[in-house]
Structure formats: C-alpha cells, structure tokens
Specification:
Two copies of one chain form a homodimer. Chain A is mainly α. Chain A is built from six helices and three strands. The longest helix of chain A has 21 residues. In chain A, 37% of the residues are buried. Chain A binds a DNA duplex through helix 1 and helix 4.
Chain lengths: 145, 145
DNA sequence: GCGAGTTGCTCAGTGCACTGACTATTTCTT
DNA sequence: AAGAAATAGTCAGTGCACTGAGCAACTCGC
C-alpha cells in the first residue's frame, strides 16, 4: 500500500552499485586489500608525506575512518606513520617498499576488473555514467562545503 | 608514481555517490531511520507477511544484514517478527501501525530529497543515470546468481 | 519412516563510515 | 607573552555489509 519503486531511487541504486562492485573486487582484485584501502595506497603513491587530514580529502573519507584504515595498512606493513617534527599534531604518511609493490600489483588488476564491471555498457555509455555520477557527487559534496 | 585517476573508477565513484546520498538523507529525510531501513519498510508496505529471506532478495541485502536491520526496526516497534506456525524456520514480518505511519511520512520526504540530489542533472540525464546504474548493478548481480 | 540434504536464521568476526566528544599542539589576537 | 581559536588525531558509539560456522526445522529419496 503506497509503496514506492526503489529502482527509481538513486540512493538505493548507489548502494546496489557499490555492493556489486565490492563483490567483484574481492573475486577479481584482492581478498586482502579492499577498494578504499587501494584508494589510500594510490593517493600515497601519488603524493607521499601527506598527513591524514589531507589524505582524507583526497580519497573523500572522514578523518576517523582514515585513522582506522591507516592503522590497518600500517599493521600490514604497507605504510609508515611518523609524527611530523615540524608540527606535532600531524602524522606524516608514506608507503613502504612493500606498500608500493602491493599498489603496483593492484593497479593492473583493478583496470581489468573495471572492464568487466562496465562490460554491459558501450564506450559512450561508460563515459556518460562516470561523468553523471561525478557531477551528482560533486554537487552533493558542495552542499556541505 | 604510476598512480591512477580514481575519478575514472566506477567503484570509487559509487562509494562517493552513496556517501553523498547518506549525508543528504540524514539532513533532509530522517536522522533516526536510514535509507536501508526505509527500503525494508517499503518492501513490507508492499508485501507484508514475507520472511527475512524473501525480504533480503527484495532489497538486495544479505541475510545476516537483514537480521540486524529487522532487529533494530523491531526494537523501535516499527515491525513485528512472528515465528511461522506452518514453517518453524521462518520469521514472518509485518509492519505495525506505527511502522506504516513512519513509512508514509518518509515517502514524501524521500521524493523531495531525490529531487535535490539529482538537481544538477536535467530530466534526460536523470533517466540515463538511473538506467545505466541499474544495468551495471543487474549484470554484476547476475555474475553471482 | 528415516537419513541426507536443503533451507531459514543466528552468531562471531572483520571492515567501512559517520557523529560527537576529547586531547594535544599550533596559530592567531591582543 | 598569555589567552582564545583553530587544527590534527584519537576514541566511543552506532549502523551498514559481508563471510563462514553452526543450529533448528523442513523436504526429498528410497
């Protein structure tokens, strides 16, 4: 009675999309390293020696979520967390050699997975999908500032 | 070094989209009832007296996730969980009057929120976005069966 | 009708993700 | 230079989401 069709609700679809992605990720990319963890490794591969705050902005994650994530990656020896001598509040982050190696391995596997994931769409549709999601996400993030 | 552009990665975008949605949801729809909880209420409004397994298929959630969710909604008095006398394994679920009332209230607020969320897109783009996400999600779910 | 397999649910464990409160450090103001 | 404000990080609490193990109840094959 008065129920709604969830397939027209972007939030519900977003959750399903992410869920489907996670599933494919664990089978095709890695069982140990998750997609958000890869995002962190990737950000540090591009910009080493940043603090957790800056990192959280790069990967669009909350600072307490980042703290957890970084702790896990640190425990696995993939990154180093050092107190900044110039500013005692900051933890400066850097990939270890092992972390860089893991990142390199994941880059190719991730590319392969993305192909499979987007296989149902043709080239133009893929671009459209990524562009539209990006616009909606950007706009919603603006609302917060 | 050899870092990748995450804005071309559907998984990362999906996470950002869902994150942006959750944020808007808590400000525009409800602080108590989450989007997945609404999905459950909505499914039960449409089809009462189903068990958790069937429900989990309707809303695309895992059985153990559903168990948690249903327990929370039950604690708040929004639904009833009764052992099926015909089949002692099943919990039969049904909205309470209060649950139905909460659902009704959320339907209109959710519609309003979806408009704001998709405001950056024109009508054609909205349809396209929802359709493309749906196709990718459906296809990925097929891979599991 | 009985054992084997299937099905529905629960529970423990792990990880993502947020808020709100707190601590420590730095910077700004006067 | 001292107090106020801002900043970086941690911690507790809640909720979503999955896997894998286990239990109870039902169904099927013979």
């Amino acid at each position: 009675m008065a129920a709604v069709d969830l397939s027209t609700h972007p939030g519900h679809l977003a959750r399903r999309l992410q869920q489907a992605h996670t599933l494919l990720w664990t089978t095709m990319v890695s069982e140990e390293t998750t997609s958000p963890q890869f995002a962190v490794l990737n950000a540090l591969a591009e910009k080493p020696d940043i603090d957790q705050r800056t990192l959280s902005e790069h990967v669009h994650l909350d600072r307490s979520t980042i703290a957890d994530l970084v702790a896990r990656l640190g425990r696995r020896g993939l990154l180093e967390r050092v107190r900044d001598p110039r500013d005692g509040r900051r933890n400066v982050l850097k990939l270890t050699d092992q972390g860089a190696a893991v990142h390199r391995g994941l880059v190719t596997r991730t590319a392969r997975m993305n192909k499979v994931f987007l296989a149902p769409l043709d080239e133009e549709e893929r671009e459209t999908l990524l562009r539209l999601i990006g616009r909606v996400a950007d706009a919603a993030e603006e609302l917060r500032g």
